[in-house]
What we know:
The protein has a twelve-stranded antiparallel β-barrel. It has a two-stranded antiparallel ribbon with strand order 3-4. A two-stranded antiparallel sheet has the order 16-17. The chain is built from three helices and 18 strands. The radius of gyration is 18 Å and the shape is globular. It has one domain: Nucleoside-specific channel-forming protein, Tsx-like (Outer membrane phospholipase (ompla), Chain C, Beta Barrel). The protein is mainly beta. It starts with 20 loop residues before the first strand and ends with a strand.
Amino acid sequence: xxxxxxxxxxxxxxxxxxxxxxxxxxxxxxxxxxxxxxxxxxxxxxxxxxxxxxxxxxxxxxxxxxxxxxxxxxxxxxxxxxxxxxxxxxxxxxxxxxxxxxxxxxxxxxxxxxxxxxxxxxxxxxxxxxxxxxxxxxxxxxxxxxxxxxxxxxxxxxxxxxxxxxxxxxxxxxxxxxxxxxxxxxxxxxxxxxxxxxxxxxxxxxxxxxxxxxxxxxxxxxxxxxxxxxxxxxxxxxxxxxxxxxxxxxxxxxxxxxxxxxxxxxxxxxxxxxxxxxxxxxxxxxxxxx
Length: 290
């Protein structure tokens, strides 16, 4: 978690086709992917989303999964010398809501991601992808998180097959570097199958549909844990007005299982129903290759 999303562009799948976190819930069109094949292999993006949902969980929420606390996420990646090896950066910044400072202190805000990804083509239709994402949370309060800058690393492998639909299967391990309960203690194995389909509407416009499921196996076991399962559905409409500039508005729905909580001060218990796990958000991604 903060936790993307291309692995989220947003809404990170775990190994980069754009990043492997975030951006899990976002459909990447063929035209957008082609930006990475630009002259020097440099691709830049700006994400504006009404919420930051990572693996089913609304990261910036204050009261519920349906909270709309806006995300601004800049990103840049480089296809190193045309080798196919991609090095990139992606940041997640909360720009609305009364809990911005609280989320930064709790290592949920100002997420800074560095990632490395290498695709290996097996056939014309099938490929493997090997990657690693480094998550950093500067500005955290050590009295809350156990570290001033909590750090997580997530190596992973992905398989993709472009058939009638695009099928993906990603596996990664989200590992906390510092030996603290709220960092290493929340480490987990993540399995993420996906299916996507793109439809060409006009020479400049495509319609992208995506469906994904995620399962976590936590280091400390899944008993009493929440956010074990997540489901995401995404719709995107990439519009490429120029050869190397694309605008991609989109809408997303996600669900995850929430764990019951107990207020540390009052002792009051909150029991979550299945319907409480739904999150809805939309936004636009602007991307350009040079």
